[in-house]
Design brief:
With 233 residues, the protein is an alpha/beta fold. The chain has a single domain, classed as Ribonuclease Z/Hydroxyacylglutathione hydrolase-like (Metallo-beta-lactamase, Chain A). 23% of the residues lie in helices and 27% in strands. The mean pLDDT is 96. Pfam families: Lactamase_B.
């Protein structure tokens, strides 16, 4: 059964935030919240009568600051983060194969999918996979900073994500082309960077991108490693 998440978009950073709900329960999970969208997200939770149980991060983002720390303080939720991303204040340090639970019987399976960053995680829930910057719609995240690796990303996508059922819905952390959701089957057949491409071809492609450094990286990464809170807070 596919149960759709609530998908919210930040136009400044092109970031998707997701709210997952639990049938028969008022508990909810939020994935990759953005600092200046805190009030928007709180209004969604209030409007729907939801109690936030978990705040999940797919990685320590370089292009925006998270609101995870403030959400945790305001709602009593626990922060759950990839163990390899250096986000020390979070209560739950996640490893590959972990299972997060909320509501009465909801389970989120943790998949370590490094490449964009060394610690990047994807989250599988009810036929939906939240892929962070590892797998985007018709693309993938860059691999040239934060311990990125084109080889690791290739393995994460082709070995782990593309091994999921074809009808698994793909919900990325970002989109820059007005798209919202895809499927594993579509990405396996059509993804411009990864479909039917050899490891060596992918390595060459990624090495030739020559992307500009994210404007906020020097601010965002240290902030996100403290759940978006000022250091010492």
């Amino acid at each position: 059964m596919n149960l759709n998440p609530i998908q919210l978009f930040d136009t400044e950073s092109s970031t998707f935030t997701y709210i997952l709900t639990a049938p028969g329960s008022n508990q909810a999970v939020i994935i990759d919240p953005v600092d200046h969208q805190l009030e928007r997200d709180l209004r969604h939770l209030e409007r729907l009568g939801l109690q936030l149980a978990l705040v999940l991060e797919t990685h320590a983002h370089a292009d925006h600051v998270t609101s995870a720390g403030r959400l945790r303080a305001l709602t009593g939720a626990q922060a759950a983060v990839p163990s390899g991303c250096g986000i020390a204040p979070a209560e739950l340090q996640l490893n590959d194969g972990d299972v997060l639970r909320f509501g009465y019987a909801e389970e989120i399976r943790v998949l370590h999918t490094p490449g964009h960053t060394a610690g990047s995680m994807s989250y599988l829930w009810r036929g939906n996979v939240f892929t962070g910057d590892t797998l985007l719609i018709d693309g993938c995240g860059r691999t040239d900073f934060q311990s990125g690796s084109s080889d690791a990303l290739y393995d994460s996508v082709t070995g782990k994500l593309f091994a999921l059922p074809d009808d698994t819905r793909v919900w990325p952390a970002h989109d820059y082309k007005g798209q919202a959701v895809s499927t594993i089957g579509w990405e396996k057949r059509h993804n411009a960077r990864l479909a039917n491409r050899s490891r060596e071809d992918f390595r060459i492609l990624m090495s030739e991108l020559k992307l500009a450094k994210p404007k906020l990286i020097d601010i965002a990464v240290p902030a996100n490693q403290n759940l978006g809170l000022p250091h010492g807070a």
